[in-house]
């Protein structure tokens, strides 16, 4: 069983920055591929970013490339999402997710943290 707890959301003005954190339980965190997703009101959940087990490989949605950075600290069982140059359209609930089986499906999810970007 894996538990994921996000933090770091809040209200920020357009152009500002936030760093989201996700704390994970489990003794084999370094074996999990990790991702961030988001869901805006009235919209479906969408992929934001993912990071490989070692942290050496990352990928991003086109909408956040160049602005967001995903990184992890396996010694601390943490994954982060640094968000810069925030836009009002980044407003959403952000979720951390873990792929613990190596199946390219995320089988564990956090409860989400709200990010609101004002114009």
Description of the structure:
The chain has 119 residues and is mostly beta strands. The chain has no helices and 11 strands. Strands 2, 4, 5, 6, 9, 10 and 11 form a 7-stranded mixed sheet that branches. The protein has a 4-stranded antiparallel sheet with strand order 1-3-8-7, with no helix packed on it.
Name its key features.
119 residues, mainly beta, four-stranded antiparallel β-sheet, globular
Gist of the model:
This protein is mainly β and 119 residues long. The chain is 0% helix and 50% strand.
Task: Give average pLDDT, whole number.
Answer: 96
**Helix/strand class:** mainly beta
Rg calculated over all Cα atoms: 13 Å
Number of strands: 11
User: Helix count?
Assistant: 0
State the major sheet: 7 strands, mixed
Order of helices and strands: EEEEEEEEEEE
Shape: globular
Terminal CA distance reads 40 Å
Beta fraction = over 45%
Point out poorly predicted stretches.
none
Helix content: under 10%
Give the topology.
Blueprint: E1 4-7, E2 10-13, E3 18-24, E4 33-39, E5 46-51, E6 58-60, E7 68-73, E8 78-83, E9 92-99, E10 108-109, E11 113-118
Parallel strand pairs: 2-11
Antiparallel strand pairs: 1-3, 3-8, 4-5, 4-9, 5-6, 7-8, 9-10, 9-11
């Amino acid at each position: 069983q894996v538990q994921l707890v996000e933090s770091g959301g809040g209200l920020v003005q357009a152009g500002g920055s936030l760093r989201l954190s996700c704390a994970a339980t489990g003794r084999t965190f370094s074996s999990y591929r990790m991702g961030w997703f988001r869901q805006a009101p009235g919209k479906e959940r969408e992929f934001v970013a993912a990071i490989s087990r070692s942290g050496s490989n990352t990928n991003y949605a086109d909408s956040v490339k160049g602005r967001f950075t995903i990184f992890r600290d396996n010694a601390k069982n943490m994954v982060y999402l640094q968000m810069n140059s925030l836009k009002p359209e980044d407003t959403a609930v952000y979720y951390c997710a873990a792929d613990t089986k190596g199946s390219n499906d995320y089988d564990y999810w956090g409860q989400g943290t709200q990010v609101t970007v004002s114009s």
